[in-house]
């Protein structure tokens, strides 16, 4: 295992002059980097990866150096300590790894083209130029870029272009920042540019494969988001521009490079005339997430990767704060309840999960830190708790002071807690460290004891086997009874006589109002029935929360899974999208209890028809002018359920919609397009249809349409076509590596295609490792596999394949957890299958 060295301890860079010459035709990079900084020792090291260093010079003299590839370093002997300036000359290859400097491929009118972009987080700047590639090693950067340029090309970077000389594009020096935030891109780009009230230029850039109108939505959101953040943070945006760039090939969702934010095309560009509300919300939250980082992460950066949550958790919360201010009619915090909350609660209940704050002992572990369910989702829930405790006034005052104290520098979690504590008078660090440093979360049991008293107790909640080590949390209870304390720090508390409390408060006892605290509640039968008897009086978030907590308790085998089934009928006519989202999450989980093509599965399909038919009748297949946001967001859930139920009317109607639009599929309403295509593939599939959809997938530049096709095509049941899909997995002209996981998961979730997909993963693991290994998305191929598997046979095969890889740096935790995930489902099915299927049959 590679030793983790911190090069910043011996050499602190102050400024980089970075010259890079890129030849796309020959796929070569030649570079010269001059670094000025302070050396504490004549023996220093700077990072490099896959660079062929040809010389290191200072004052025209050659310096001794050696390459240490294991440490990804150039070790240099300097003539003296103190302030030094030296120049490293090198060359390297332009690769297709989507890391470092890399090409993105696209087509315009059948002609293949490429643009060059960068991705330097986490430790990929060292693949582009030699540097101290650590967050703490902030410096200023002057970029000079040369490339095999032709007329009509545009080049952009963190800062504005200063001048062009001899074909070299020189950019103004940046402010002090970390290496992983350096960015540039060039190619045939179109753009739209506006300006904020404060004079910041805001632009959206994309290839010319897109319609100009696809840039408009992002431009509006980005401009208003910067204006909102300047006001909320009470700190000006510190750069002259904020460019948003859509890259055709991009591994992550987006990246907060300072002044030049990069995105997957699907998360920046959209057709304003035909995009679902759900996709608009997703794009808006991605943009506001990245722009939140321009302060929280870029202006002030975590000192080391163990505090990654400082960047990501905060940006994840702020994306919702911002969109709620920009588009209040969207009720965006409801999206938080259907995305961040369940994702965090699900993963954080598996024993072995990482805590939000994680020590990093090996370079390969850095990318493994980017656990979306923990560092992003759980971390943001944690900060939502902080916001609720402080209120926005103290939060904003604390953040203003935090930015003032640490701008252009680095900070730790303790620095944030101090700033917020000073502004609020609360010991936030004491409360939050129990959430930050410990994995998992508690279930708070509320029950009436033999004496008639209402007693609360906390204990760590597990799905599957878990080792209880008596963890305790400082829990913001958020009760509707004043007798419950604001913070529950004890293992058990007695609130007094229940009947007295119930009479006084005149409403059922509830905890975690708003579902903003990171715990679930297990009510005893008396308390639960009291709540359910008044369910119609509850707001949608509370109704959803009830179903969510009971589902998790059932997965943890603390309540019977079969007991959930009558509740689905009780809530089936809800007009709330977030209630329907949870209702159908539970309903879809029932599929694992019914063997394919069995009588139990047929009864489950009938149950789905019972749940969905009245809603299908109410909403219909096609969106209506003026309908509510809830109706727009609910329609896909109930139509999907109706198709699973094999409802003849729905199958026929979807087929009719397809037939009427088969020559203009892209213009089909984005709200239902994916389901119409999926229905056609499943029920009316043919080789001709398959080829037509694959061709459309290759040719369209509409990311939303591409996503619908990607969802539909893997549902084919034809063995020959399944084999064809698998043959495309390694053909980047058809399936880009960035999209491969979605295709793989789609085929794996298709009973007819599961074996072929699973065989491919095992047979081609080395190819997959060579293609996307070392990237933060790589381990998620394991995650999505465990998400689908639930039988003893698949558990054994999964374990046999992945256990030998347990010592692979960056994969160890994921493999251990995912074995537990599948084991917990196998055990749950073994315990509950008969009861669940009997309960479904009785509906």
UniProtKB/TrEMBL annotation:
<dbReference type="InterPro" id="IPR014782">
    <property type="entry name" value="Peptidase_M1_dom"/>
</dbReference>
<dbReference type="Pfam" id="PF01433">
    <property type="entry name" value="Peptidase_M1"/>
</dbReference>
<dbReference type="InterPro" id="IPR042097">
    <property type="entry name" value="Aminopeptidase_N-like_N_sf"/>
</dbReference>
<keyword id="KW-0479">Metal-binding</keyword>
<keyword id="KW-0378">Hydrolase</keyword>
<keyword id="KW-0645">Protease</keyword>
<feature type="domain" description="Peptidase M1 membrane alanine aminopeptidase">
    <location>
        <begin position="217"/>
        <end position="435"/>
    </location>
</feature>
<dbReference type="Pfam" id="PF17900">
    <property type="entry name" value="Peptidase_M1_N"/>
</dbReference>
<keyword id="KW-0482">Metalloprotease</keyword>
<dbReference type="InterPro" id="IPR027268">
    <property type="entry name" value="Peptidase_M4/M1_CTD_sf"/>
</dbReference>
<keyword id="KW-0031">Aminopeptidase</keyword>
<feature type="domain" description="ERAP1-like C-terminal">
    <location>
        <begin position="511"/>
        <end position="823"/>
    </location>
</feature>
<dbReference type="InterPro" id="IPR050344">
    <property type="entry name" value="Peptidase_M1_aminopeptidases"/>
</dbReference>
<keyword id="KW-0862">Zinc</keyword>
<dbReference type="InterPro" id="IPR001930">
    <property type="entry name" value="Peptidase_M1"/>
</dbReference>
<dbReference type="InterPro" id="IPR045357">
    <property type="entry name" value="Aminopeptidase_N-like_N"/>
</dbReference>
<feature type="domain" description="Aminopeptidase N-like N-terminal">
    <location>
        <begin position="12"/>
        <end position="181"/>
    </location>
</feature>
<dbReference type="InterPro" id="IPR024571">
    <property type="entry name" value="ERAP1-like_C_dom"/>
</dbReference>
<protein>
    <recommendedName>
        <fullName>Aminopeptidase</fullName>
        <ecNumber>3.4.11.-</ecNumber>
    </recommendedName>
</protein>
<comment type="similarity">
    <text>Belongs to the peptidase M1 family.</text>
</comment>
<dbReference type="InterPro" id="IPR034016">
    <property type="entry name" value="M1_APN-typ"/>
</dbReference>
<dbReference type="Pfam" id="PF11838">
    <property type="entry name" value="ERAP1_C"/>
</dbReference>
């Amino acid at each position: 295992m590679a030793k983790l060295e911190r090069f910043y301890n011996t050499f602190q860079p102050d400024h980089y002059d970075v010259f890079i010459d890129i030849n796309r035709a020959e796929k070569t990079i030649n570079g010269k980097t001059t670094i000025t900084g302070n050396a504490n020792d004549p023996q220093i090291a700077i990072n490099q990866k896959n660079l062929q260093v040809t010389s290191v010079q200072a004052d025209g003299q050659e310096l001794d150096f050696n390459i240490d590839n294991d440490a990804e370093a150039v070790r240099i002997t300097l003539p003296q300590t103190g302030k030094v300036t030296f120049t490293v000359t090198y060359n390297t290859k332009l690769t297709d790894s989507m890391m470092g400097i890399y090409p993105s491929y696209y087509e315009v009118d059948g002609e293949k083209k490429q643009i060059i972009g960068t991705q330097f987080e986490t430790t990929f700047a060292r693949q582009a130029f030699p540097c101290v590639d650590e967050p703490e090693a902030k410096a200023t950067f002057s970029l000079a870029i040369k490339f095999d340029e032709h007329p009509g090309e545009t080049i952009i970077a963190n800062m504005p272009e200063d001048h062009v000389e001899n074909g070299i594009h020189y950019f103004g020096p940046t402010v002090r920042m970390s290496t992983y935030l350096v960015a540039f891109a060039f190619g045939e780009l179109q753009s739209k540019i506006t300006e904020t009230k404060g004079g910041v230029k805001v632009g959206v850039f994309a290839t010319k494969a897109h319609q100009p109108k696809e840039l408009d939505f992002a431009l509006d959101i980005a401009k208003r988001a910067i204006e909102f953040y300047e006001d909320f943070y009470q700190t000006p945006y510190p750069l002259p521009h904020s460019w948003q760039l859509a890259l055709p090939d991009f591994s992550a969702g987006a990246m907060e490079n300072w002044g030049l934010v990069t995105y997957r095309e699907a998360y920046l560009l959209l057709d304003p005339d035909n995009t679902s509300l759900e996709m608009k919300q997703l794009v808006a939250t991605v943009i506001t997430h990245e722009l939140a980082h321009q302060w929280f992460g870029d202006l002030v950066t975590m000192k080391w990767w163990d505090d990654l949550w400082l960047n990501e958790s905060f940006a994840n919360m702020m994306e919702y704060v911002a969109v709620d201010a920009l588009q209040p009619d969207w009720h965006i915090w409801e999206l938080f309840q259907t995305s961040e909350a369940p994702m965090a609660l699900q993963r954080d209940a598996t024993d072995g999960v990482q805590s939000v704050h994680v020590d990093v002992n090996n370079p390969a572990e850095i990318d493994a830190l980017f656990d979306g369910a923990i560092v992003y989702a759980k971390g943001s829930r944690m900060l939502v708790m902080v916001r609720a405790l402080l209120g926005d006034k103290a939060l904003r005052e604390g953040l203003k002071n935090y930015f003032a104290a640490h701008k252009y520098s680095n900070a730790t979690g303790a620095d944030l807690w101090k700033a917020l504590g000073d502004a609020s008078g609360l010991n936030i660090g004491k409360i939050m460290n129990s959430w930050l440093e410990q994995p998992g979360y508690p279930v708070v049991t509320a029950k009436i004891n033999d004496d008639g008293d209402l007693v609360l107790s906390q204990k760590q909640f597990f799905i599957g086997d878990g080792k209880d080590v008596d963890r305790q949390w400082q829990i913001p209870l958020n009760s509707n009874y004043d007798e419950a304390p604001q913070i529950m720090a004890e293992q058990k508390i007695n609130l007094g006589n229940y009947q007295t409390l119930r009479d006084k408060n005149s409403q059922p006892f509830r905890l975690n109002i708003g579902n903003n605290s990171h715990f679930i509640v297990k009510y005893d039968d008396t308390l639960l029935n009291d709540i359910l008897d008044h369910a119609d009086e509850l707001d949608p978030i509370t109704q959803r929360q009830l179903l969510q907590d009971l589902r998790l308790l059932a997965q943890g085998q603390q309540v019977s899974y079969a007991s959930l089934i009558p509740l689905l009928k009780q809530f089936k006519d809800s007009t709330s999208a977030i209630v329907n989202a949870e209702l159908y999450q539970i309903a879809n989980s029932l599929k694992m209890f019914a063997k394919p093509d069995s009588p139990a599965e047929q009864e489950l399909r009938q149950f789905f028809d019972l749940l969905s038919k009245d809603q299908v009748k109410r909403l219909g297949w096609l969106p209506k002018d003026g309908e509510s946001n809830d109706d727009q967001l609910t329609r896909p859930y109930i139509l999907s359920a109706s198709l699973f139920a094999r409802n003849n009317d729905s199958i026929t109607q979807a087929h009719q919609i397809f037939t009427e639009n088969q020559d203009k599929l892209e213009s089909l309403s984005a709200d239902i397009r994916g389901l119409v295509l999926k229905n056609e593939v499943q029920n009316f599939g043919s080789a001709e249809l398959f080829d037509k959809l694959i061709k459309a997938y290759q040719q369209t530049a509409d990311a939303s349409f591409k996503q619908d096709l990607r969802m539909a095509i893997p549902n084919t049941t034809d063995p020959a076509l399944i084999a064809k899909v698998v043959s495309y997995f390694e053909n980047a002209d058809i399936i880009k590596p960035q999209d491969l996981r979605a295709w793989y998961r789609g085929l794996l979730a298709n009973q007819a295609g599961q074996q072929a997909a699973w065989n491919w993963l095992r047979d081609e693991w080395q190819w997959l490792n060579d293609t996307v290994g070392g990237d933060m998305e790589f381990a998620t191929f394991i995650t999505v596999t465990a998400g689908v598997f639930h039988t003893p046979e698949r558990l054994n095969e999964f374990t046999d394949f992945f256990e030998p890889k347990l010592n692979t740096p960056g994969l160890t935790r994921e493999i251990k957890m995912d074995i537990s995930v599948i084991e917990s489902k196998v055990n749950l099915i073994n315990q509950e299958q008969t009861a669940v299927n009997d309960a479904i049959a009785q509906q």
